[in-house]
């Protein structure tokens, strides 16, 4: 579930948790122990706007399965939760997952396919890159083809991961698109199937 969808659901439930009551804009709270037996030094009651509370709840939820998120998306989720340790851990884990893969590092001749899900009015599509030798012992990643149906739309939509003379051409693609969207083929055999379960 996307965070925006969760936020709408949480807001709706908080605003009107029971059908027979009018919708609320403000939620009031007090510790139960102080309601049952109030004391003079009891903590003050609190009140918060429904929208603000819903946003705080949604920001704390891990809404997507981590295997279906890019390392960068996991880090952004942690950042929204104000979890610096989680943000750093997500980035470190993404790096470790790539560099510890048995097929790593990329080699000239590798084919890398990235699949993009449909979104809004955009149909699902994919693009395929070729890893080739570059200058000074580095590698390049060249766009071979894409499956975007409308060539006019393709202008800024494809080829953004093509690189020249990069020591690690897969790093940006791995972190941004995510390993779950990648298929990597070496010598005619798939060595990484991101969408496989």
If strands are numbered along the chain, what order do they take across the biggest sheet? 6-5-4-3-7-8
Order of helices and strands: HEHEHHHEEEHEHEE
How much helix, percentage-wise, in residues? 25-40%
- Could you list the spans in which at least 5 consecutive residues all have pLDDT below 50? none
Envelope shape: elongated
Distance between the termini: 19 Å
Mean pLDDT: 81
Total strands? 8
- Summed up, the helix count is 7
Largest sheet: 6 strands, antiparallel
Structural class: alpha+beta
**% residues in beta strands:** 15-25%
Radius of gyration: 24 Å
Give a short synopsis of this structure.
The protein has 197 residues and is of the alpha+beta class. It has helices spanning 3-15, 32-36, 50-60, 71-80, 84-99, 154-157, 171-176; strands at residues 26-29, 46-49, 111-116, 125-133, 139-146, 163-166, 182-186, 189-193.
3D architecture notes:
With 197 residues, the chain is of the alpha+beta class. The chain is built from seven helices and eight strands; from the N terminus they run αβαβαααβββαβαββ. A six-stranded antiparallel beta sheet has the order 6-5-4-3-7-8, with no helix packed on it. A two-stranded antiparallel ribbon has the order 1-2. Strand 3 and strand 4 form a beta hairpin. Helix 1 crosses helix 3 and helix 4 packs antiparallel against helix 5. The longest helix is centred in the middle third of the chain and has 16 residues. It is elongated and about 75 Å long. The model has no long low-confidence stretch (mean pLDDT 81).
């Amino acid at each position: 579930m996307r965070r925006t969808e969760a936020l709408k659901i949480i807001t709706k439930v908080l605003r009107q948790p029971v059908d027979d009551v009018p919708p609320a804009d403000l939620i009031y709270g007090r510790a139960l122990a102080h309601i049952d037996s109030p004391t003079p030094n009891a903590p003050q009651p609190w009140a918060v706007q429904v929208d603000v509370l819903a946003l705080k709840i949604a920001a704390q939820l891990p809404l997507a399965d981590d295997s279906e998120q890019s390392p960068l998306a996991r880090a952004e989720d942690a950042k929204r939760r104000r979890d610096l340790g989680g943000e750093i851990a997500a980035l470190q884990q993404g790096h470790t997952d790539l560099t510890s893969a048995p097929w790593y590092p990329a080699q000239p001749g590798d084919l890398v396919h990235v699949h993009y899900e449909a979104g809004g009015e955009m149909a699902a599509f994919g693009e395929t890159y070729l890893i080739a030798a570059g200058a000074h012992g580095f590698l390049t990643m060249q766009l071979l083809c894409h499956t975007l149906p409308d060539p006019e739309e393709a202008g800024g939509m494809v080829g953004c991961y093509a690189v020249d003379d990069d020591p690690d051409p897969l790093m940006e693609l791995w972190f941004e698109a995510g390993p779950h969207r990648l298929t990597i083929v070496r010598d005619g055999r798939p060595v990484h199937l991101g969408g496989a379960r």
